[in-house]
Here is the input.
Amino acid sequence: MWIVAGCQAPPTQPTSAPPAPVPNPPPATQAGAPRTAEQIADTRADSAAKLAAAHAKTIEGLMATKTAPPNGVTPVDPSVTPTPPPSPAMSAPPGTTPLKSAGDDVFKPVPPPPSGGAAAIGAAVGFAPPQEASAPNGVVMAQPSQPPAPIPAAAGDPPRAQGGANDPLDVQLQKAAKDAPSDLAPQLDAQLYKFVKGDTVPTAEALAGLNAEDRDVLTAVMDSLSNFRTSIRRDNNMLIARKIRPLTDMGDRLRSQSDLTINNPAVCRSIRGWGNYEPITPLRLPAGLDNWPGLYYEVENFSSSLDVNNMWKTNMRQDVAVYDERGALVWQWPNEPVTDICRNRRHDFYFARKVKTPIHLPAGPYILKITLTDQGAGRVAETSVPLTMTPPPAVQAPPQGPPLR
Here is the structure.
């Protein structure tokens, strides 16, 4: 009986069996003749077998040189799979049913490698080596190489927007714009994405469902952005005033689309210019006298247009009226058309006029109402100023001289 310790195999008795026959070497191929796929696979299998045999001899030599540790303890080699305990089926007495343990399914004998070269070995382990295409007459042809992977964009390159029907963001934005053709927000999102891709904006289908005001706003925004990008691409070293001119023009166009507004109305003692005036506070004027105060107010969101002489022209009409505390019209200044012509587009506008109050107004509270009409855009703005007429000062009698004698 042999006692096995560690992984060393027991010695075997010498036998006198006849030596195994030496296989005949394969016929040599002629120099330069092409090899078949079967010959290539056999060559690879032989090389793998030689490497495995050399590795096994090296391991056996290393294990033979190891010295046993003290106290007869045999070290365990972590690279070697431990032998499982004997199954109950192996030691069951005769005439009894052997029991099956869980280790019987885990520790199973490894079948020998199939014959047939490298292709059969790869199929046994679930891996198929690359097949080499062979042309007629036994000529081996190499497989075409895979196309190279696309080169990723550099860190400094600007992002490139995807286009076409395969772009999920474009599809989402276009769907939202079609679902709400009269809503300005989805139309703006879709046009901005087209602007990023370099398309012409705004498009006719985006403007078709919008009302007139939203159409003008979207057109002003997209035109200004396109002009701004074109100018900085042409010359990025221009002065900041010229660089942002398309954006300031957009502000002027949008202001012209807003509601006409009258700001800072006041009755003044003196008016020297825009924003430079001296108001009468509190606004009290003596009744029954000729009063010539100055009327001042500022105008925002007015419209201007170029005339035939390439000058910016603004057309307005001013109406001034006085109402009593019951709302009855007691006095009205005649309508006055106002026309302003300027070589550059005007950004501020103000009125400064002398106004004569009627003498016949009795003392009491009144409302001074101002109505301004922008004839170019057809919009109207109104504002009012509280006015109080005070009693005229008492007329003092001239001093009397001494009585006549």
